[in-house]
Write a structure and sequence with these properties.
The strands form three sheets. Strands 1, 2, 3, 4, 5, 6 and 7 form a seven-stranded antiparallel sheet that branches. The chain has a five-stranded parallel sheet with strand order 10-9-8-11-12, with helices on both faces. The protein has a five-stranded mixed sheet with strand order 14-13-17-15-16. Strand 9, helix 3 and strand 10 form a beta-alpha-beta unit. The protein is globular, with a radius of gyration of 20 Å. The protein is α/β, with parallel strands linked by helices. The longest helix is centred in the middle third of the chain and has 13 residues. The protein is 18% helix and 34% strand. Bound molecules: FE2/S2 (inorganic) cluster.
């Protein structure tokens, strides 16, 4: 996908305040047709015109993949973020025309799994909602362990309990409840795949625990879209297109390239998929890598960069783009 990739023209059909922090948005096709089919765990990139600033944020689809009459996403308000979630919360209303990308799935159910073990934290519940809606009618074995800060902020707890009953386990932080991960992982049947989506600390904890207990790498799946961090502005030279671009304090290199008319590839826009990987032609300074994609060695070598999330500090950065 790139900034020039085809988009779907949609109308906002519904906006629901789910709790103090979360709003749910439903999009339908403006031409009245069905949405493209998708599989559980997929996301779309929502295009926003935030008073002249173009924002493109990825959000997991949470609606039933069997229902192509519309797509639903949930957005957690982030007061400290760069503005995408605030735009969605403050300015997106029913009837509004928007554009979204075609769905992409970086977090699908693994067809080899004999059982799917889902671990969610906070707003990380959304991809599991479409995954469970997909797996239930297929008769697939799954179980959800969902950690929330409080019941008031635990989005969709009642809906999940109603739909999936004893397959749903809720842990409320403020009640001192926590997932007993070691015992959960040690009692799973052979062939179980583990999926985690939530805050970085939770993902790191789950992955490290599973690895330490000998779970094969290809049975542990995670998804986290990192928000591009803010920082000092800097200059980047683009060798292939012959352009010099300024990356603003609240802008990613990818966004600065797009604003300069350079069509760069992306899928997740959150440092997770590898699609935007770009070779560094020259680096006189220090690259601040913020992605999950490059290895530690690749990061240290300063020969590659993920422009969707990483930043630069120094005299000169030349990229092969
Ligand atoms: S677009 Fe996915 S890592 Fe940059």
């Amino acid at each position: 996908m790139s900034v020039g990739a085809p988009r779907i023209d949609v109308t906002v059909a519904e906006v629901v305040q789910v709790n103090d922090l979360i709003k749910r948005f439903r999009f339908v096709r403006t031409d009245g047709g069905p949405m493209p089919t998708f599989s559980g765990g997929a996301h779309v990139v929502v295009d926003m015109d935030d008073h002249g600033t173009r924002r493109m944020n990825p959000y997991s689809l949470m609606s039933d993949p069997g229902d192509v009459s519309g797509y639903e996403i949930s957005v957690r308000r982030d007061e400290a973020g760069r503005g995408g979630s605030l735009y969605m919360h403050r300015h997106v209303t029913p009837g509004m025309a928007m554009q979204i990308s075609y769905p992409v799935n970086l977090f699908p159910a693994d067809a080899r799994a004999k059982k799917h073990l889902f671990l969610a934290g906070g707003i990380g519940i959304t991809p599991f909602m479409s995954l469970m809606a997909q797996l239930q009618p297929m008769g697939q074995r799954f179980e959800l362990h969902y950690a929330v800060r409080s019941l008031a902020l635990g989005a969709y707890v009642d809906r999940l309990r109603d739909a999936y009953a004893e397959r749903v386990h809720i842990y409320v932080d403020e009640k001192g409840e926590a997932i007993d991960l070691k015992s959960l992982l040690s009692t799973q049947p052979l062939g179980t795949h583990l999926y985690v989506c939530g805050p970085k600390g939770m993902i790191d904890w789950v992955k490290a625990t599973a690895t330490g207990m000998g779970w094969p790498k290809n049975t542990v799946h995670s998804e986290e879209f990192l928000a591009p961090p803010v920082g000092q502005p800097f200059q980047v030279e683009l060798a292939a297109s012959g352009k010099s671009i300024k990356v603003g304090a609240a802008q990613s290199i990818l966004e600065a390239m797009e604003a300069a008319g350079v069509d760069a590839p992306y899928l997740c826009r959150g440092g997770a998929c590898g699609q935007c990987e770009t070779a560094v032609v020259r680096c006189d300074g220090h690259i601040h890598h913020h992605d999950h994609w490059l290895s530690d060695d690749e990061k240290a070598s300063q020969t590659k960069i993920m422009p969707c999330v990483s930043r630069f500090e120094g005299k000169a950065l030349v990229l092969d783009r």
